[in-house]
Amino acid sequence: MKNSRRNKLLEIIACERFEIQKDLCKRLNAFGYECTQATVSRDVKALGIVKVPCGDGTYKYSQPQGEGDAAFSRRLLTIFREGVTSFQSAQNIVVLKTLSGLAMAAAAAVDAMKREEILGSLAGDDTVFLVFADADKALGFCNRVKDLLEGG
After folding, report:
1. What is the pLDDT of residues 45-68, one digit of tens each?
2. Is it the case that residue 78 has pLDDT exceeding 80?
3. For residue 98, how many C-alpha atoms fall within 13 Å in the half-sphere facing its CB?
4. Taking a C-beta distance cutoff of 8 angstroms, is the pair 94, 132 a contact?
5. Please, what is the end-to-end C-alpha distance for the chain in angstroms?
């Protein structure tokens, strides 16, 4: 349940603006995750979520940007190991299959990588389509996912 809640937390901060943890807690509760502000605080710390300025004098929770491989290995490791059930490349497209409800979190985490070879992503309930610049880059990503799932 903890991993599912944390994946949902990553998903909602990618799509919505929250300034305080109490509001994050309310939103998670609305999705059926019974948690307290203390639980959200621990999740925020564990996921490396930070508060960033919005430009209008307010702040919002966000995933740190520009961490490259460190972000991939820390954040995506949990999402991929717990949620990805299969993956396959077809030319320059990679299809990730996830447990039901985790595709948006997986796509948001991949998008946060800001990798130039990933041109875009599209997520449903349990499927993510990733479009790469070419077939070699898609295959390279699949090799990386395979290593992660095998414990590398």
Report:
1. 888 788 877 778 788 888 765 545
2. no
3. 27
4. yes
5. 24
Residues 76 and 57: their CA atoms lie apart, in Å, by 31
Query: Among 140, 100, 97, which Cα is nearest to 118's?
Result: 140
- DSSP one-letter string for 89-125: EETTEEEEEESTT-HHHHHHHHHHT--TTEEEEEE-S
C-beta separation of 60 from 103 below 8 A: no
Q: Give the CA angle between residues 143, 110, 122 to the nearest 5°.
A: 105
Q: Where are the alpha helices (DSSP H) in 1-152?
A: 2-15, 21-30, 37-47, 68-71, 77-83, 103-112, 135-149
> What's residue 138's pLDDT?
94
Please give the model's pTM, rounded to 2 decimal places.
Answer: 0.54
Contact 83, 106 (CB under 8 A): yes
Q: In degrees rounded to 5, what are phi and psi of residue 15? A: -110, -20
Q: Exposed, middle or buried by CB within 10 Å (0-12, 13-18, 19+), for 45?
A: exposed
Q: Nearest 5°: phi and psi at 151?
A: 100, 10
Q: How far apart are CA 83 and CA 77, in angstroms?
A: 10
